[in-house]
Structures are given as structure tokens and as C-alpha cells.
Amino acid sequence: MSQQVVLTGIKPTGTPHLGNLVGAIQPAIDLSQDNDKRAFYFIADYHALTGLKDAQLLRDYTKQVAAAWIALGLDPTRVVFYRQSDVPEVFELNWILACFAPKGLMNRAHAYKAIVQHNEDNGESDVDAGVNMGLYTYPILMAADILLMQTRWVPVGGDQVQHVEIARDIAQYFNRQYQRAVFTLPEAMIDEHGAVIPGLDGRKMSKSYNNTIPIFGTSDELRKRVFRIATDSSRPGEPKDPETSTIFQLFRLVATTEQTLAFRQQFLAGIAWKDAKEQLFAVLDQLLTAPRERYRDLMSDPVAISDVFRYGAQEARDLAQETMRHVRLAIGQNLL
Ligand code: TRP
User: Fold this and answer.
1) Closest CA to 254 of 222, 300, 293
2) Which atom of ligand 1 is closest in space to residue 151's alpha carbon?
3) Are 68 and 16 spatial neighbours (Cβ–Cβ below 8 Å)?
4) How many other CB atoms are there within 10 angstroms of residue 238's CB atom?
5) One domain for residues 247 and 326
6) pLDDT tens digits, one per residue of 291-303
7) What residue owns the CA closest to ligand 1's atom 10?
8) Using an 8 Å Cβ cutoff, are 167 and 147 in contact?
9) Is position 163 within any domain?
10) Host domain of residue 117
11) pTM surpassing 0.70?
């Protein structure tokens, strides 16, 4: 049986942090080890462009994200790892799919609706203020990414499920119109421990809350960050509730079961916050020591990353061109 395609896009809009690592990077790398599946992971740089117009930043984030995934264990000979903008077929398909995407479907997309809502709440006379067409048609480009590679599974966070459903809808409109299964129907795949990963202040770890733990700083920087985690005022010796502690929640995401059980006991026995932080720092530091070095090497050797992208784009384009042959034939672009 041929392998099912699993594909996901990574928007290069920030420096990778611990939330990205446990929420997306690690699960995706684990999934790529599954022999029943063929993994396609790519840097969605043209999706980033809808909001990120600073060339230097886009360049930096693209390199950082690629280096992070490789440093953390993505094997570019096993995963087709590429940059969206290196696959022109994506943009050809984007137009074709746009012709199958009802405008109303875009109006109902959450990200767009949230901006409209924000404008309304702020008494803005133009409800579309701040919306460019790239943002508005973002789900179509995403559908092109997905359908081009005949994707079956799309690992994403909860906020992207609707986009995958839109891709599936568009695929169905197309297949139905031409009475043939040109596109595989994709489905979102949500990691079951898609639990919210808390940041320094206890809210979801997110760049926009400025509460992240960056993964590729120095050991010293890591320690400082960990020591900034908010705690309550309970004193050493007082029992502490592991379930409400950010320190414990982060610890369990990166430690072994035995370590976690022992840590829990220490909480109940009244560990001092500073000792708890020291232990969290220790597991994180150990986990990140080797990747940190690989990351530094990759970042100082941009040729290595561009080589990976070049190789990945070739593989991706092979499949993309095959899909496009079927698409062009279906819509009647062939003259014979
Ligand atoms: N929109 C996704 C995000 O913001 C990134 C993305 C772009 C994507 N194209 C994709 C994810 C295709 C899955 C499949 O995270």
C-alpha cells in the first residue's frame, strides 16, 4: 500500500520557544518516524507575508525555524522539508482553487472574522480595515499547500482545524465538478496532548504574551527565564498543588514518568519554589544541550539550510507536478 501523506506548514513568525517544541515540533518529528506515512513539512513563508513585511525578520525567522526543526531531530532525508515559496506549483494551484472557493466561505473563516469583529468593536467605519487580500484568501493558499501534495493528514493546532475543513470542502467541490478524484480529501489531526502549554505568567505560552521560554538561548538565559516563572506566595515546607503550578506543568511535558512522579511527591512535601525551578531548569537544560549546539552550527552555516531547502523543493515539486498534470487535464487546459 502506498504511504499516506502527512503534511504541515510552519509559519516563520517568531523565534522557536518551548511551546512550539512540545506542542508542534516534537509531535511532528515523532509522526515522521511512522513508516506508513510520508511526511511533508514546510516553512509557510508566503503565509507569513500576510502580516510580516520586514524582509530581515522574515529571513531570520525562516532560518531560525528551519534550523530549529533540524536541530531538534527532523531528518531531511526522511521528511520532505521545504520552503513554500520554492514550489511555484502552489501558486498556480492557488488560483485554480480560488475559482472553486465560495466567497462566503472566506467570510466565515475565524481569523478574518476576528478582525472584522475587532473593527466593529472599535467603532471602525470600515469593517475590513487592516485586511489585505492575502489575509482574506489565506485559507485558499493553505488549501493549495495541502491538496497539491495529495495530503491525507494535517497535524495542526485547534485554531487551524477550520482551515483544513475549508481545504477539504474545496477539494470536494473540485472533485465533484469534474467527476473524478483529483484530490485526496484531507483531515486535521490533533495531537491529544494538545493541552495548553503555560508560559511564564501562567497564560498560554505565546510570543504575543511575551511569556515564552526560548529554546536556543544559552544555558544561563534559560535559567533566568525559568526563574521568572510566576509562583504563589506559599513558603518552603508548605505543601504545593502540582496541578496549578506552571513549573510542574512544564516539567511533566519534558520529564520522564518516574521523574514526574518524584517531582509530584516533592510538591506535596512542600518543595521550595526555587528548588522546583532549579529542577525544571535542570531537565530542560539537559534536553536542550545537544540541540543547542546543532542549532548554533546550522545558523552559522546558511548554506547547509539552503541545501536542505533545495533538496526538499525538488522532492516536493516532483509530486506537485504530478498533481498539476491531473488538475490541468481535469479543468481542460490540455488542447488534445
Ligand atoms: N496556517 C498555519 C498556521 O498558522 C500554517 C500553514 C500554512 C499550514 N499552510 C499550511 C498548516 C498547510 C497546515 C497545512 O499555523
Assistant:
1) 222
2) 14
3) yes
4) 11
5) no
6) 999 999 999 998 9
7) 9
8) yes
9) yes
10) 4-196+302-331
11) yes
